[in-house]
Amino acid sequence: MKLFNLIRIALKALQRNKLRAFLTMLGIIIGVAAVIAMVAIGQGSKQSIQDQLSSMGSNMITIRPSSNQTVGGGARLDASGLQSLTLDDVKAIQKQATFITEVSPAVQSKGQVINGALNWPTTIQGVSPEYLTIRDWPVKDGISFTQEDVNAADKVCLIGQTVAENLFGTGEDPVGKIIRFNKIPFKIIGVLAEKGENAFGQDQDDIVIAPYTTVQKRILAIPYIQNIYASAIDENSSALATAEITDILRTSHKLKPTDEDDFMVRTQAELINTFSSTSQLLTVLLTAIAGISLVIGGIGIMNIMYVSVTERTKEIGLRMSIGARGIDILFQFLIEAILISITGGIIGVLLGIGASRLVTLFLQWPTLVSESSIMLSFMVCAITGVFFGYYPAQKASRLDPIEALRYE
Amino acid sequence: MSNKIVSIRELKREFRMGAEVVRALKGVTFDVEPGEFVTIMGSSGSGKTTMLNILGCLDKPSDGKYLLDGVDVGSLSRNELAVLRNHKIGFVFQSYNLLARTSALENVELPLLYNSSISSKMRHERAVKALEAVKLAERLDHLPNQLSGGQQQRVAIARALVNEPVMILADEATGNLDTRTSYEIMALFQELNQQQGKTIVFVTHEPDIAAFSSRTITLKDGKVVKDNRNTQVRSAREMLAALPVAADY
Ligand SMILES: Nc1ncnc2c1ncn2[C@@H]1O[C@H](COP(=O)(O)OP(=O)(O)OP(=O)(O)O)[C@@H](O)[C@H]1O
Ligand SMILES: [Mg+2]
User: Fold this and answer.
1) Which atom of ligand 1 is nearest to the CA of B50?
2) d(Cα A300, Cα B176) in Å, to the nearest integer?
3) A206 C-alpha to center of ligand 2: Å?
4) Can you tell me the ipTM of this complex?
5) Tens digit of pLDDT for each residue in A39-97?
6) Cβ contact (<8 Å) for B86 and A328?
7) I need a labelling partner for B108 at 20 to 30 A (CA). Which of A115, A194, A234, A304 fits?
8) What is the pLDDT of residues A313-367, one digit of tens each?
9) Is the pLDDT of residue B1 over 50?
10) Measuring from each residue's beta carbon to the nearest atom of ligand 1, which residues come in under 6 Å?
11) In sequence order, what are the residues at sequence separation of 6 or more whose Cβ sits closer than 8 angstroms to the Cβ of residue A405?
12) CA–CA gap between residue A217 and residue A223 (Å, rounded)
C-alpha cells in the first residue's frame, strides 16, 4: 500500500480517538518541552557567561603574585600581602614578550570617594594608559591620561558610570570636576563607557581609574605593584603568551629550576573554558532528566498501542480478509505511533520555546533555543515512535485473520 | 480445467487441539464454474465455514489441492495469499464487519486502498459505482450506525464488489436479517449473478435461501453428501413482491 494511504488511515484512526491520542501525546509533549526549555536555559546561561567574560577583554591575561615560600610552621602568606611583582617585571615583559601587545601594571585600593555632599565607597585602580586598550574599554566623555601623567604621578582620574551616577546629578558634567578619594583630590578628566557586570556579578563600572604611580605613592605608599594585566595578540595565542610570560618572570625573579613560581598567570580563555564546562555538565544533566521523561512518554505510547491493537482486532481481521498484508498492518500501526510521537514532538517544541520565552520574561534568565536541540528532540521523537510502536504493530501484523475476525 | 473458478480435490483440514485432532474437512472435491451461484448447506459444525475460509484464502488446507482461477493456492506465502484475496475474492460476513465511524464510501474504498495500482480518483469512482449497484447512491456519507442492518449488509456487498473479484464468498450473509430484508439481499445477489455474471458461493442454514441459487452443495461431518443442480431457481424479486406489505407485523 502507498505510504500516503497508510498515513491517511492512521490519521483517521487517531481522529476517531482524539482525546486518547492527545493524552498519549502528553507524555511526549512534556518530555520534549522539558528538553527544549532545559537546553535553552543551559545554553542561555553559557552564552551570557561567555559574553560577560569576553566583556572583560577576551585576550586579557592577568598576572598575580603567588606564594612559593612557606614561613614558620608551613603557613603560606596571603597573596594580597605579597610583593613579588615589580615594575621591572612589566618592563621585562614589554621588552621580551612576542605574543603580547600591551602590558599594564596595576595597584588598587578601596576607599570613599567624595564630591561635595555626596560620597560613595568604591575601588581605585592604578594602571598605565595601556590598561584601557587591554580591557577594550573606551572613554565616553573627556580623555584618558597619558604616560606623562604616569611619570609625574598626576592626580587625575577616569570614573566609571556607577561612580558618575552616584556622585553627580543628572545633567551635571563630571569632566573637569575635582573629587576626593580618601581625602586626596583627583581631577576627573574622563568618564568611561558603561561595561555592566562581569561574570562574577561584580559591577565593573563601580571604579575610579588613575595612573598607577599616583595610587602607589599617594594612596598606598608602596613601591611594588599588585597585578600585571597584559593582552595577547589574539585569543588563540593566550597559551603561548602564558608560557612566554612564565619564562620571562622566572628569569627576572631569578628562580632556580626547582623553585615554584612566585606568581600566577591567568588567561580569560581559561576562565571561559571552566565556566563552559560546568554549564556543559548542567546541560547534560538537565537533558538526561528530560530524556527520561521522553522514554516514559514512549512507554505510554506503547501501552496505548497495545490497547489499540487488542481493541481493533476485528478491524485487523477485516483488513486482512480484504487483502491487507502483514506489512500493511504493521505500517498502519507504526505510522499511528509515529504520528502520535511526532505531533507530540511539534507541540512539545512549541511549548518548550514558549516556556523559554516566559523564563526570560519573568525570571530574567537568559535562554537560547538552539536549532540542534529542536532537531535532536524531533529525531528522538521519531525514534521513540518507531521503537515503542514497533512491538504492538508487529503483534497486530502477525494476527491470524480468521481468529481476528472471530474476536469479540 | 483452467476456466474453472474453483477446483478442489480431496481437500482436508484438521485442527490440532493439544493431543486431540478435529477433522473439520475429510476430503472434499468439487468445482465451481464461472457464473455459478452455489450455496453450501449443512448442519452446524459440518465444516461450512472452514470450507469457505479455505476458498477465500484465509486458511490453508492440511491436505489436498485447491486451484483458484487457475492458481495453485497451496504453494503461496502469507503475503501472496493477501494479494490473491485482494484481487480475486470479495467477502460478505454475517456481522457486516464495517469499520465503525467510517462512512459507507470509505468502507467500500477500503479494499482498493490495498491495491497500489489504483489511483485515488479511480478508487472514488469505483466505490461510488459499487454503492450505486447496491442502491445506496444516496447514502455515501452515512456512517454504519446511521444505517439499518440490511443497508449495512449492502455496503458490505458493495465492498466485496468494488475490487471486481472473480468470486464473492458469503457466510450466512442473511443470518442477522429479517425475511423481507433477507429477500432483498438475495435479490441483489441474484442480480449480480444473473446480470453481471458474478460467481457466488453462499453459506446458509436455510433451505429457502438455498432455493435462490443455481446449485446447492450439502456438507455433513466434513464431507459432501449432496451436490444438487437447482433446475427451478426461484426469483427473490418475485418472492419479495409476493410478500404481504406488512408481512412481519
Ligand atoms: N480454529 C479451530 N480450532 C479447532 N477446531 C475448529 C476450529 N475451527 C473450526 N473447528 C471445528 O471444525 C468443525 C467445523 O466447524 P465450522 O465452523 O466449519 O462449522 P460450520 O459448518 O460453519 O458451523 P455453523 O453452521 O455452526 O457455523 C467444528 O467441529 C469446529 O469445532
Ligand atoms: Mg459457520
Assistant:
1) 18
2) 39
3) 94
4) 0.94
5) 888 888 777 777 776 666 668 888 988 866 555 455 555 555 677 888 888 999 988 88
6) no
7) A304
8) 999 999 999 999 999 999 999 999 999 999 999 999 999 999 999 988 988 888 8
9) no
10) B 15, 17, 22, 24, 42, 44-50
11) A314, A317, A318, A321, B58, B93, B97
12) 8
Q: What is the enclosing helix (H) or strand (E) of A168?
A: none
Q: Is B145 an interface residue toward A (CB < 8 Å)?
A: no
Residue A224 has pLDDT above 70, yes or no: yes
CA angle (B106 as vertex; B68, B131 as ends), nearest 5: 70
Does B121 contact chain A (CB < 8 Å)? no
Domain boundaries, chain B: 32-61+71-242
Question: Residues near A395 by Cβ (< 8 Å), separated by ≥ 6?
Answer: A306, A309
Pick the CATH number of B32-61+71-242 from 3.40.50.300, 3.55.40.20, 3.30.1330.60, 2.170.190.11: 3.40.50.300
pTM of the full structure = 0.73
Which tens digits make up the pLDDT trace of B11-25? Answer: 999 999 889 999 999
Of A12, A326, A402, the CB nearest to B53: A402
Cβ proximity of B5 and B199 under 8 Å: yes
Instruction: With beta carbons less than 8 A apart as the criterion, state whether B192 and B225 touch.
Output: no
Three-class secondary structure assignment of A68-92: CCEECCCEECCHHHCCCCCHHHHHH
Set of cell numbers at residue B16: 490440532
The Cα–Cα gap between A100 and A236 comes to 12
